[in-house]
Amino acid sequence: xxxxxxxxxxxxxxxxxxxxxxxxxxxxxxxxxxxxxxxxxxxxxxxxxxxxxxxxxxxxxxxxxxxxxxxxxxxxxxxxxxxxxxxxxxxxxxxxxxxxxxxxxxxxxxxxxxxxxxxxxxxxxxxxxxxxxxxxxxxxxxxxxxxxxxxxxxxxxxxxxxxxxxxxxxxxxxxxxxxxxxxxxxxxxxxxxxxxxxxxxxxxxxxxxxxxxxxxxxxxxxxxxxxxxxxxxxxxxxxxxxxxxxxxxxxxxxxxxxxxxxxxxxxxxxxx
Length: 272
Description:
This protein is of the alpha/beta class. It is 29% helix and 26% strand. The protein contains seven helices and eleven strands. It has helices at residues 2-15, 73-86, 92-97, 121-137, 201-212, 230-235, 249-258; strands spanning 38-45, 48-52, 98-105, 110-116, 141-148, 168-172, 177-181, 184-188, 216-224, 239-245, 268-271. The strands form three sheets. Strands 2-1-3-4-5-6 form a six-stranded mixed β-sheet. Strands 9-10-11 form a three-stranded parallel β-sheet. Strand 3 and strand 4 (110-116) form a beta hairpin. It is globular, with a radius of gyration of 21 Å.
């Protein structure tokens, strides 16, 4: 696969007569079962409830999706257990409101996000009942949330506001997810952007440092679309000042939280 990808890049380069030459693609430490964010479409009809990996599967009465080669086995096992739970008759009111079940986190711990069309007393009680069982189904689950999207958007974490309502409700656990990358601890909010291939991040950070060749006290770093400050924090100590800029408020909030881990003398700031 890697050889084919490198060949495709070289052919693209030659076809468009681009200058210089592309370096070889860096191989992923985990070319399989690497995704830390996955999701399933919830299909609830006369045939029962099933969790489909692709939109095409929602139109046919197939059984549960086969295991994905890209998602960790813990995700697959949890989806299987959740499908069985949600198929019970007393969960039918919740099942009808569900658009997606989403799992996010790191290789060490995870959160479950239920994408629902609305929240009311009945739905919240069913969600809490389901959330209580999550640590038993998977000890790696540390939190759970309800994400409200009345439009049933094809994007499973659509950020359009809910008129006069709540967008994200915490069911249990901490409000942020934690991970350690290249020896540095980070936090991010469950709706914020994060790299889905955690195993590849150390190589990305090392490549950024190599390409930028920080010059120390004479240079400033500007990190555009900084997210929760992954590159900003990793590189900040090598610059006189580091500034991260980001549109998403939850990512800026996480980036500022992550700044607490810097020793005195490191100057880093973030702006939305």
